[in-house]
Amino acid sequence: MKKTTRVNHPPRVAVPADNHPLVAPIYQSVKFEFESLEETVRNLRGERPGFHYMRASNPTTRQLELTLAPLQDRDDCLASTSGVNVIAQTLLGLTKQGDHVLCFVETYGPTRQIIRRLLGRFGVTHTMLSIEDLPGIEHTLASTATRLMVFESPTNPVTKIADIARLTQLARQHGALTVMDNTFAGLHQHGEYDVDYFVHSLTKYASGAGDVMGGAVIARAELLRPLRAEFSMFGALLDPHAAFLIQRGLKTYFVRYREQSANAQRIAERLARHPSVARVHYPGLPTHPQHALARAQMREFGTVVSFDLRGGGEAGRRFTEALELFALTASLGSTESLVMAPQMLKPRDLTADQLAISAITDGTVRLSIGLEDIDDLLQDLERALSTA
Ligand SMILES: *Cc1c(COP(=O)(O)O)cnc(C)c1O
């Protein structure tokens, strides 16, 4: 073999079957081959396991999917390039022209856009209510044939709690499927509820390091099967490098979530006593209007604390710019603490009535609590509040 040929057909290093790497390798290969045409064809027909082309599947990405599914008490998962991608693909995959979707004002902004603009363009209608409006939800499901109910809990940014048992029971009773964005609650909570599809941004808690994006939809295998073929048409399977980084992040997921939630609880308690703060939104506070429901549904209350400054938007600007440890940027779930100012939080697509339901005020600030020392965080907050 000439050298030019050899570099394209390098020697294979076969790891013996009884010899395992402790950390699974990155399968950075688009193509996989079998030794015969017959086995290739059987694999393409789904008659034998194996891999063929990375747009459909890759061992590293598959390993991440199989790690994620049982965290959420389900048996299958599809991982894609971002949380928004997985939400868009899941909603497109589950609806057709003429279907109706029930969704909520208290929803991640891009999810509202996907339902209104993207699904709307393909003739899917929607009703948007408050997550707290149980009579309205029951009335809509009873009076309008509904394909999907799409909701989240705790909600972004004011951490309202959805009554998951009641919502899923109503959806089931009226023949609607449920899609729950469980990003805020994390991968280990709410799995015991009768939710059909959990969607997650893996960009947040799963990786924790803030250096990689990903998304996942987690469900029972028979519910995921119809989505799987369509996912490969979008060509957005999570890249194996990203899957590897997220898999690595997951090893410390539980300690991070627990520790960051404990920090968030301390911070919420401290803010609740501060004279410049009108109201703190954190499900772990006994003063949260749905604290009892949160305690029944959750073991940890998450790492997002939001609050309303008495001084409104101007105080919010001074406060967020005075913080030193909190980065003024989007996202959550990283080991660094982050802050979003009122000017970054105010939705621009809502009517005045919907804005009132959202409970976002001119002075609402959102904190995402990281892994820094709690006393340093409290000191930074106190100092910035005194300048606000
Ligand atoms: C961040 C986020 C998303 C979107 O995830 P990306 O990975 O940024 O695309 C969806 N839902 C919620 C609740 C989020 O916080």
List keywords for this structure.
alpha/beta; Aspartate Aminotransferase, domain 1; 388 residues; 2 domains; binds pyridoxal-5'-phosphate; 7-stranded mixed beta sheet; Aspartate Aminotransferase, domain 2
Secondary structure layout:
Layout: H1 3-6, H2 37-44, H3 59-71, E1 76-80, H4 83-94, E2 100-104, H5 109-121, E3 125-129, H6 134-143, E4 148-152, H7 164-173, E5 177-181, E6 197-201, E7 215-219, H8 221-234, H9 240-250, H10 253-272, E8 277-281, H11 291-297, E9 304-309, H12 312-322, E10 327-328, E11 338-340, H13 342-345, H14 352-358, E12 364-368, H15 374-387
Parallel strand pairs: 2-3, 2-4, 4-5, 5-6, 10-11
Antiparallel strand pairs: 1-7, 6-7, 8-9, 9-12, 11-12
Helix pairs in contact: 3-9, 4-5, 4-8, 12-15
Bound molecules: pyridoxal-5'-phosphate (PLP).
Number of domains: 2
Helix content: 40-55%
From the spread of the alpha carbons, the general shape counts as globular
N- and C-termini, Cα separation: 73 Å
Poorly predicted spans: none
CATH superfamily of the largest domain: Type I PLP-dependent aspartate aminotransferase-like (Major domain)
Main sheet summary: 7 strands, mixed
| Structure annotation, total helices | 15
The radius of gyration computed from the alpha-carbon positions, rounded to a whole number of angstroms, is 23 Å
What spatial order of strands do you see in the largest sheet?
1-7-6-5-4-2-3
What fraction strand? 5-15%
